[in-house]
Fold each of these.
Amino acid sequence: MQATDKTYTVLSGGGGGAKFALGLDQVLAEGQLQVIANTGDDFEHLGLKICPDIDTLMYTLAGIADPDTGWGLRDESWQFMESLERLGGETWFRLGDRDLATHVRRKELLASGSTLTEVTAELCRSMSVRASILPMSDDPVSTQIHTTEGVLPFQEYFVHLQTEPTATGFDYAGCDSAHAAPGVLAALGHDSLAAIFIAPSNPWLSIDPILSLGDIKSTIINARVPVIAVSPIVAGKAIKGPTAKLMKETGLDPSVTSIAGHYGDLIDGLIIDEQDAGLQGAIEDTGLQVGITQTVMKSHEDKAALAAFAIDFAISLGGNKK
Ligand code: FO1
């Protein structure tokens, strides 16, 4: 197992990425885990600043996330939504009563001059989250989905239209002028760093917004530690969400081989599920190392086992980075 003076940094969206981050948090000691959170899903709504992937990561690492939806809080009530509905307000984006407090508190702290990084640290402190959750940027970056019905802002596509439109491409508005948030580049380069992980989040919707920031991507390209991705695709399907649908719509075969090709030279290794073991050779032919284990995470034990495997796999690659 890993030495406890080593640290690990993971790039993550919500959903599957948060489960992997929880697994890492379970097997690592306090102070060993940094999470770089996607903020491309963020949007202003009902006068609030909604940060879905930051909140899913916070709630998951605090052990209070809704276990089924992949977002929001468990044991939630919906009085606010019901009242807003009666008043004619927008309720397509569901805000639970307890979840609402997070958004109101974030808005209040931002209005008082705190940065998103500072607000996230404060909220994590309030929820006793051990890991360090770092927004990718304090500057606005908004994921836009190009579809046959026009260009859609992320939440309009993902929630309002339930990812139904046919996607043709993506862009990350604001990425050219945005910079990594404080602490992010250090988390990708400090001396104690042992590995950088790309969580099994949607590459186009959750990871590429992070990589669209030039300073983050170049720091990862020049990393002196192994960069390991966990495939979000298992046996041609996504565990949850539109990853496979997006791949088909943009002309990609929804396979782990396409995931390997997408990350390309940015990564040294790819971890795939046992069900895709037959594709190991094809992926190794592209120059990547392949780790094979169960990547489907149902229980806490599954999450911890995948995290432990990823750490051991990274350590085994330690020397021979590409
Ligand atoms: N996703 C939905 O599919 N429906 C919702 O009503 C919804 C509400 C919501 C509220 C707060 C929050 O932090 C996330 C929420 N999400 C909802 C998830 C959000 O759309 C995320 O961006 C996606 O899950 C992708 O990460």
Note: The longest helix spans residues 300-317.
Amino acid sequence: MEVKKQILEKVCAAFIKDAVLEEFENIPNGHINVTDRVKVNGRNYILQRINTNIFRDPVGLIGNISSVTEFLREKIIAAGGDPDRETLSLVKTLDGKYTYEDESGLYRMYLFITDATCYNKAEKAGMFGESAKAFGRFQNLLAEFDAKTLSETIKDFHNTPVRFANFEKALAENKAGRKDECAKEIEFYLSKKDYCPTITSRLADGRLPTRVTHNDTKLNNVMIDDATGSGICVIDLDTVMPGSMLYDFGDSIRFGASSAAEDEKDLDKVYCVPALYEEYVSGFLSEMKSSITDEEVKLLHDGAIMMTLECGMRFLTDYLEGDTYFRTHYAGQNLDRTRTQMKLVQDMEARRDEFEAIIKKYI
Ligand code: ADP
Ligand code: GN1
Ligand code: MG
């Protein structure tokens, strides 16, 4: 703890003049970066150590975030909103940079968004729908953002056929020697090969539009206002890149419409909850109705299936490679995560008609 405090003190001093670190607290929500709330000179900030094993081009990454947040800031001000709460705000170092690096890592700092909370599960009726509106609004606000200026922070992030090829490679290499423990899961994902290009092939030939998308629309990547219950700010902008609306819809459903945690061990408890699905569809479409295309509508449910399939395949790939990508808190967590995602895909496939009927109600 003392060592961590010393590190944080040094990092905070790079961002804030005469910094006195009064409190610090780790926030364990995300699987990628290391995030701490730090209280410095009476004010809270978010300090993140960027995972540079995953984000290989930190300059491109921080360039994306600064340009996207500045763009959003202007839109929010023009609409009469509060830019310090409705978008992330990077804090510059004392020498005017967006990141600080020392032997302990590469850091960025954000203003702490006050009186708002990130949830791992929709705790109240309506909360998931509010997150949908926030992600829908986010995508609408970025409709005029020039996609060509964005760096690809993780190559082929939602290219499911490439993810499939990576999975096959991990399987062939069997680096961690775990292949035999997960034969059923391996067989399931292998059987999905032909389904993987459903979205990418349509983006490539223009049947689906390419938009600026968030690409990591987990419920815990939106802050919910404590007072009003509305989705106040979309966070975790590391993967804002050109993509499909179906990715954002699908990844939200994958995480937030699940009946259980991402690593639930009892698979009888894991299924896709129709009432939550409906809340999301209703909220998302209330924001996107004017721009969604017929082909996107037709494939919305496939977006949910694809993102869940892809994420499960990524968890399994990481398990086979020895847990080097996603942060894990216990041995076997990536396999538990793989299994919940597989169960969700099976459920969404089996009840396709039921879920597609929900979508039809809102079109
Ligand atoms: P990761 O990329 O590892 O998922 P996130 O950027 O999503 O990291 O941050 C992890 C958590 O930290 C979030 O779920 C949220 O609880 C909290 N957090 C991040 N940014 C802010 C902020 N600006 N204000 C308040 N809390 C934040
Ligand atoms: C990671 O960082 P976090 O926890 O919001 C991952 C997503 C996965 C998700 C699975 C950059 O998101 O792609 O869907 O875990 N982010 C990255 O929970 O790989
Ligand atoms: Mg996150």
Note: The pocket of adenosine-5'-diphosphate (ligand 1) is lined by residues 27, 29-30, 32-33, 35, 46, 88, 110, 112-113, 118, 220-221, 235-236, 238 (CB under 6 Å).
